[in-house]
Amino acid sequence: MEKTKHIHSLRTYLEVLELAGQLTLVKKPVSLVHELADVATTLARKGGGRVLFEQVENSGWPIFTNAIVNQNEAALALGYSLPEVIERMGFAIDPKNGISPSTSSTAVWKQNILQDEAVDLDKLPIPPYTNGFAAVVQIQKSNPGESKNVCMAAFTAHVNIKEVIVVDPDVNIYDPADVLWADINRVDWSKDVFFVPGAQGHEMDPTSDARGVHTKIGIDATYKPERRDYGERIRYQEVDLSHYI
Q: What is the chain's mean pLDDT, rounded?
């Protein structure tokens, strides 16, 4: 496929999204209290994905959300077609393909430096990150032991995987917030988590030893009605996007 513009920063990623017609701009002022999250979630559910809020109340920063919420967006960010992503990710994490670091006397980030009393962590945009060593699996569970079996199957399916979270069909495995909801609300940490010590992982995993040996973890984040009926789920409310776009 024809490669997209080289992405090496958030700014260049935004440029690629805009050129591809995949960046939604919200110019209307929005509140950080519920409103911004409701708009972003509605866009993600409707396939709108990436959104830049240009005017956020009580904030000196524009806010970019939904950076990568599905496989197609991951392919765009990497500059490859969807079928190529798995192969390219495998290439990237292979130690023999590593790139040696180089030193430089200048850096772009040095253009924005705050020191001493000027530092206010509440004003800094701090995004969450993850890595390629975890897997989330969705199943229609019929027996209590199935989740553990699924975790073990995932561990053996790919050596890199060190954490597996098993969820129900009502959880969107492509939405980290939904997976976290299941993790918090459906896991008893004394009963629903198990460890596989001394398992083979990837040498580049920072938690492993030099040969890639570490402990894997399986998490059963499925609903267990035999314990307790937790009631109806609380979800972000969908909003009318015509008010914002």
A: 83
